[in-house]
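Structure first, sequence second, as always.
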């Protein structure tokens, strides 16, 4: 394997001006999404990789070359790192045409050669015929394409994209997703995408890293992170509303079958790690893993907890709906589930209607409340 095939590996640490304690790796041809709340350090980490911000310590290696080594006081300049950077506001030169903006990134060859290569990149992003337009004469989507062409025209060792779709409307964004996915598929360099949109990350990235307060909390494929959070903090940051406190009532040491007391309701889970009876834990289930039970459906499947309640809220989002189920009891308890449009129409679901749901034990994750996770084990 050649040195160039090594991809990106980075571990950086600092306390000021923004705390960072992050580790990430990205293989050639891979798109890695950095997600997290505002102020989590996503853009700072991106600028650190590009050489625009110098961390207090750490190591950054890309394509077999050391870009930063805190111990050896090695810090390559942004130009030496050969990074293609698509900024959130695109960063185009307002006085230059689309062609001239791209030519600024082509640093080798004669003027005719640079112009020819720049035209080729504009064609690859579907902007042929718009070479002479300046940024103010282009739409947000067209400016984004120019910025992408300019970033790739550098023949970079690393492509960085900082919220590249934030300045365009939803319809344009949907079109750009497809174009970008097709464009990135042919690249053999590591690619980092910063986004706050989890659907965007799941659509474009092969792996994702969740950051909070500058720390790496979890990494993996989008499905691994979004469907199997490794802590209640991760689940909460991912927007999961089904995070509850319960008490361990019993556990089978052989099978891991665990019964939790949730405000008087018994919840069945499969937990690999041993828990103490009476121990207070948190349990989590994704809204998409809560199953709606059609009227008359038998409720005798092993490994499931069946509950009934009343729909308090139903909000439609395109082909799906988010349903909030209010459960009976002294305590105010609600569960969130995702329903398809067909399910809503078939059962005439609406606020105020009673429904039944099932919680698969294999989909429930249990965590010790002090933060040490005990992951739900699949049967």
């Amino acid at each position: 394997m050649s040195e160039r095939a090594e991809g990106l590996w980075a571990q950086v640490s600092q306390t000021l001006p923004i705390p960072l304690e992050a580790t990430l790796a990205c293989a050639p041809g891979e798109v890695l999404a950095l997600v997290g709340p505002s102020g989590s350090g996503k853009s700072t980490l991106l600028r650190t990789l590009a050489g625009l911000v110098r961390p207090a310590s750490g190591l950054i290696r890309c394509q077999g070359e050391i870009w930063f080594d805190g111990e050896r006081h090695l810090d390559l300049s942004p130009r030496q790192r050969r990074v293609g950077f698509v900024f959130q506001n695109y960063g185009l030169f307002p006085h230059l045409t689309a062609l001239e903006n791209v030519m600024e990134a082509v640093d080798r060859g004669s003027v005719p050669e640079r112009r020819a290569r720049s035209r080729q990149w504009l064609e690859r992003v579907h902007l042929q015929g718009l070479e002479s337009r300046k940024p103010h004469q282009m739409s947000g989507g067209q400016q984004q394409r120019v910025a992408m062409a300019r970033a790739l025209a550098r023949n970079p060792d690393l492509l960085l994209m900082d919220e590249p779709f934030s300045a365009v409307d939803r319809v344009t964004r949907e079109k750009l997703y497809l174009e970008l996915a097709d464009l990135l598929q042919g690249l053999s360099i590591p690619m980092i995408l910063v986004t706050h949109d989890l659907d965007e990350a799941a659509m474009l990235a092969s792996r994702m890293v969740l950051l909070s307060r500058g720390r790496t909390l979890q990494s993996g494929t989008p499905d691994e992170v979004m469907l199997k959070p490794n802590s209640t903090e991760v689940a909460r940051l991912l927007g999961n509303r089904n995070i509850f406190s319960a008490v361990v009532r019993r556990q089978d040491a052989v099978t891991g079958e665990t019964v939790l007391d949730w405000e008087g309701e018994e919840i069945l889970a499969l937990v690999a790690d041993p828990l103490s009876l009476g121990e207070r834990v948190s349990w989590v289930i994704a809204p998409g893993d809560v199953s709606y039970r059609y009227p008359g459906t038998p409720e005798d499947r092993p490994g499931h907890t069946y509950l009934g309640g009343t729909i308090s809220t139903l909000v439609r989002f395109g082909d799906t709906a988010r349903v909030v189920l209010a459960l009976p009891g002294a305590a105010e308890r609600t569960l969130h589930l995702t329903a398809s449009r067909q399910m809503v129409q078939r059962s005439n679901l609406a606020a105020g209607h009673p429904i039944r749901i099932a919680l698969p034990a294999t989909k429930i994750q249990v965590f010790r409340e002090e933060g040490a996770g005990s992951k739900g084990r699949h049967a």
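Margin note: The longest strand covers residues 304-317.
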